[in-house]
Design a protein that fits this description.
Helices cover 26% and strands 33% of the residues. It is of the alpha+beta class and 104 residues long. It has one domain: ACT domain (Alpha-Beta Plaits), CATH 3.30.70. Strands 1, 2, 3, 4 and 5 form a five-stranded antiparallel beta sheet that branches. Helix 1 packs across helix 3. The relative contact order is 0.31.
């Protein structure tokens, strides 16, 4: 499911609760070539305090769009804010929390 607007970005991702009120989501993110040099994942860690696990990635210079499968883990509000941040950067984000295909 592709997330269409900023207001629904955080609500559209299924957030699974774990102990200590920590949440975890699995997403696929498309990074347009024009955004390849932006430290998007670094900002998720430093600005939102998230643990980011890159489970798959395709990104190369002059290779067009990049794709990432990510697991984001942290406090629920921080995860939601991180997802809004991604949308504000005009990155497309899909919920992978309920999918079992494991790839693109």
């Amino acid at each position: 499911m592709m997330i269409e607007n900023q207001e629904s970005v955080a609500e559209s991702i299924e957030i699974t609760e774990q102990s200590d009120r920590v949440t975890k989501v699995s997403i696929t993110m498309r990074v347009p070539e024009s955004n390849h040099r932006e430290p998007v994942i670094s900002h998720l860690v430093s600005d939102f305090g998230l643990v980011v696990n890159i489970t798959a990635a395709v990104l190369g210079e002059n290779q067009g769009d990049g794709w990432f499968n990510l697991e984001l883990e942290g406090a629920e509000e921080k995860v939601k804010s991180g997802l809004v941040y991604l949308r504000e950067r005009n990155l497309e984000v899909w919920d992978k929390s309920n999918h079992t295909d494991g790839g693109w």
